[in-house]
């Protein structure tokens, strides 16, 4: 199966909409968009719920929830369930790539730093977070697309 040409833009748009329209938090919105556009609906609710402790920098202003949600999304497809599985190194490498790509755009992955010049909960902060949610979703979608198209992915997408 080939991913649609619109895969990356679809994941980004869905994540942004889930954040703004559906009232999901940043991490939840990214996970929801990735699951929806990869057809991974087998544990949809539970996987989105995994992201519920991550918003607002894990409640402390640390790591951006959009980035941690994107990292969890990578784990869904590249993570291990057996502690002897060496594929974990590939997953860690992809997480590092995600981190560096987001940081190159926003100069930080710390929620507190990213939002230091805006009032928490203000329309300005929500708009900035919408953009960050979209960026994190786009980065993870590009990674998934590349891994799928180069056949290094360990996941299979359902036929539509």
UniProtKB/TrEMBL annotation:
SUPFAM superfamilies: Multiheme cytochromes. This is C_GCAxxG_C_C family probable redox protein.
